Amino acid sequence: MAKGRKPSTIVAAARPDRDPAYGSVAPPLWSSDTFRWADADTKPDYDYSRTVNPTRDLLAEALAELEGAAGGVVTNSGQSAALLALLLLPAGARIVAPHDCYGGTYRLIKGFEEQGKLHATFVDMLDDAAFTGALEGGADMVWIETPSNPLLRVTDIARRAAQAKSAGALVVADNTLLTPVRQRPLALGCDLVMHSTTKALNGHADLFGGALLAADPALVERLQWWANAAGLSGSAHDASQILRGLRTLVLRVDRQEQSARAIAKWLSRQTIAGQVLYPGLGFMISFRVAGGTQAAAKFLAALELVTLASSLGGFATLICKPATMTHRGMPPEAQAAAGIDPDLLRLSVGLEDAEDLIADLARGFAAVG
Ligand SMILES: *Cc1c(COP(=O)(O)O)cnc(C)c1O
Question: How many helices (H) and strands (E) does the chain have?
Answer without folding.
Answer: 13, 12
